[in-house]
């Protein structure tokens, strides 16, 4: 399962939007950080940074983020975190974790596995169609005793970065993840559940801004897969850059899209990212 995009949507009701002060997105005016970044295997010193990134995904959800971060570290060197290169480190940046790419299993008995599964199913029940909900339910209720679905080995893809972090790092990171996924001794879930964050126009569902640009490639693969999206505007502080933004006179609102991929679909997507030049 894959958490892929941070979405924002635009409202055509200008009278309502004019009463609210949405920030204009001006990347040129944003504070710039001058660091060289590298991908490193997750380690114990990254626990706080991982928790902060997981908070971006789950916002106000009741999920034990420390336990989930621990699970990412336990399967290291599988996956990676993005941090300042060693020659660029200073006292302020030593503990800085700017992104993470990993897959954690959801078919174990750990509490965070049940928490994430319940989180997805609650939103699927509310925002997905009945048929799509049943597909998610079949994969995510694999912890029930004696359930043959256990053979599916569902995993959760975590692809999260700080907002406006350079997308160029995604190609080598996904390439490495593909190699690790096919290596002996690495968990190899048959289903992937992932969350993508995106921004879209309410008046035109084709007008979507992906906060992680590489995740748009997922929707170019030929094979269809179930997904749904849910709004997160009410879960984000009004002053946050993850909330609504105004671009070219249109207001974009934040959504999360949750996708259910087979292993073949995931590897196809990962290969597309690996071969891309952003």
TrEMBL record:
This is Protein BCCIP homolog. Belongs to the BCP1 family. Signal peptide: none annotated. Residues 1-27 are annotated as: Disordered. GO terms for cellular component: nucleus. Residues 13-27 have a biased composition (Acidic residues).
